[in-house]
Amino acid sequence: MLHYKPLPSPRELKTLYPLDAEAILFIENARKEISNILEGKDRRHLIIVGPCSIHDMKSIREYAFKLKLLMHEVADQFLIVMRTYFEKPRTVVGWKGFLHDPELNNSNNIEQGLKLTRQLLIDLARLKIPTAAEFLEPHSCAYLDDLIAWGCIGARTSASQTHRQMASGLPMPVAFKNSVEGNVEVAIHGVISSAQPHSYMGINQEGQISVMHTQGNFKGHVVLRGSDSGTNFEPASLAQVVKSLTKFNLPLNFLIDCSHGNSKRLHEQQCQVFHSVINQIIEGNASIRGLMLESHLHAGNQPMLKNPQLLRYAVSLTDPCIDWETTAALIREAYNKMENNFNQTLHSASCNF
Q1: How far apart are CA 197 and CA 305, in angstroms?
Q2: Cut 0.90: pTM above it
Q3: Where are the chain's structural domains?
């Protein structure tokens, strides 16, 4: 240990950047809508879409304004939730995300990262855009847990007891991804564990190390993201997942990540995965409750540079993304397919009646 710098407590930061009553109600309602979709009480499907990671406020706000307009267009069929991933797990080393290094220069100004992240999420809540995030650092969720509509435990941490305990006390639906090796039961075990009450060491809202007692999170579910060895979005793989969920007496619902292993990390292939999944939904697979896309204003990705001013605007610093035009076209096409299928089903039902 070289040195340390105290941070403001979660309560201090929440007091400095408070949520107003309207934004609180919006986030609560978004969580309920997501839960209803997962449980099949709402016939719509989730689309969790946005940059692989946020790294500058301007491009994220521009993306959000575009997404807001699209959300209204497709609201009959899809609830769109915006990816706002502010922490990034690294296989070895690398940029750990906006929360850890908001200035993109290895200064690791975490206090500033917390403040900027909180302000951004508040702005999105005021725009009525529900947000999604991966919870990676257990302490950071105490600063941001009131702002997120959908949480995720990533492929590298789904097997972690620490993250399962944390998820058991979070106030929103939380997904567990299959492992990087493709093991889906790791994610299923995460869902089971996080539904149970836990007691563990954490920080309270005053920033004190405390024994945390949780009630269990009953909104856990699985995300299928493929692996380095293969995909798991095709019908045969989904049938196996349904068998596994049945074996553990869990709800038969899951989301499919169109990126990562399912796209073989080729951003253009997200489109093929997306089309396949939408077609499976139309063909009657009721277990698929939504999809995930990695999308930014511009396609591809770029390496971190010593001079952040030389970075290309609105191009991912982490995984490659599809561009906005492709994203909007994909979602609109899926909306039209789903709407036509819904209307045909209604027509058939009325004729039979």
Answers
A1: 44
A2: yes
A3: 26-352
